[in-house]
Amino acid sequence: xxxxxxxxxxxxxxxxxxxxxxxxxxxxxxxxxxxxxxxxxxxxxxxxxxxxxxxxxxxxxxxxxxxxxxxxxxxxxxxxxxxxxxxxxxxxxxxxxxxxxxxxxxxxxxxxxxxxxxxxxxxxxxxxxxxxxxxxxxxxxxxxxxxxxxxxxxxxxxxxxxxxxxxxxxxxxxxxxxxxxxxxxxxxxxxxxxxxxxxxxxxxxxxxxxxxxxxxxxxxxxxxxxxxxxxxxxxxxxxxxxxxxxxxxxxxxxxxxxxxxxxxxxx
Length: 267
Hints:
Solute-binding_3/MltF_N, D-Maltodextrin-Binding Protein, domain 2, alpha/beta, 2 domains, ABC transporter substrate-binding protein
């Protein structure tokens, strides 16, 4: 028969073991404001690199317009932000949230009804157009000049949807790449004749690669939003509150000007 203190010690050890198992089970932590987080003390944000100036790596850190805005959310929650680079389709489909990989998606994501159904979006924070990038010595001035040519696009993007939807109209063929830099660098390499993507990133690419230029911007009435799990409405509410406050107190404009060099457009 075991001594009483031995039994008590074993019971205590068992309780600690069960507690440790619970802490490693992936159960979400909750902030004082009722926001559920996959990791205690951390706002885990999923993105897809690189998409400068929205999110990209500089000096070993992930920085950018989206990152700065989500830092405001983390500050509001009293936690720190950690950014994780994953496949873009996992963010837009909501798979990243189902797998508890992140709390929010911040990847210059165009809001669409299908995406919103999978993982609800915040209020819009950026208006975007599609843009056509070519080499500076190219005779191409618009998609109308792309007949018989090759147009690169990024997988899982609205640009890909638009490009493929107009192949018959303009007579080009599309070539799909996994990310924006590879699709754009294909223009530099001459393996494609042009690339279609969001104007913010392609205008930035052209500034840094002066042998390329944006020759056309197409108003597709797109807006970016941050998305979250369907099970985390408190986080969505917090993001919306932060965006509203940042726009009213000038913080949003300061961040916008930092990354784009101009004031944010009036709403």
